[in-house]
Amino acid sequence: MFNKYSDGYCPQCLLEDYEIPLIVNNMDFWECPVCRFQCHSCTFSVLSIMRERGEGLLKEIQATFWINKFTLSRGDKNSITDSDGSIFKDEAELRDFLLNDVK
Ligand SMILES: [Zn+2]
């Protein structure tokens, strides 16, 4: 199920109807323990989806406490922690980005 906002669950796993809370990793990014999706809260309301997956080195802090209605955005091509400013309008755009731009 697509939602252009994140409440701290992995957006990629939500597309398959799995609610997996994101967890802080060793780089202090949010990471999914299942698919290794990574994102970064670049402002207090925007979560940028990073173009590379994490390595599974997770701490114990879950995002569901900290992330509430953050807008999902594409990660910048030239900076791993910044957003490129674009948001996802629908599920097709999110699926396309995850398939073609996230390694
Ligand atoms: Zn996931």
What attributes characterize this protein structure?
103 residues, alpha+beta, 8-stranded mixed sheet, 2 helices, 8 strands, 15% helix, binds zinc ion
Walk me through this protein's architecture.
This protein has 103 residues and is an alpha+beta fold. It has one domain. The protein contains two helices and eight strands; from the N terminus they run βαβββββββα. It has helices spanning 11-15, 91-100; strands at 5-6, 23-25, 30-31, 38-41, 46-49, 58-62, 70-75, 83-87. Strands 1, 2, 3, 4, 5, 6, 7 and 8 form an eight-stranded mixed beta sheet that branches. It binds zinc ion.
Summarize the structure.
This protein is an alpha+beta fold and 103 residues long. The chain is 15% helix and 30% strand.
Instruction: Say which molecules are bound, naming each kind only once.
Output: zinc ion
Mean pLDDT equals 94
Sequence of secondary-structure elements:
EHEEEEEEEH
Count of alpha and pi helical runs: 2
Strand content: 25-35%
Structural class: alpha+beta
> Rg from C-alpha positions?
12 Å
Number of domains: 1
Largest sheet: 8 strands, mixed
Helical proportion, percent range:
10-25%
Gross morphology is globular
- Regarding quaternary structure, how should these chains be classified? single chain
Number of strands: 8
- Low-confidence stretches are none
First-to-last CA distance: 22 Å
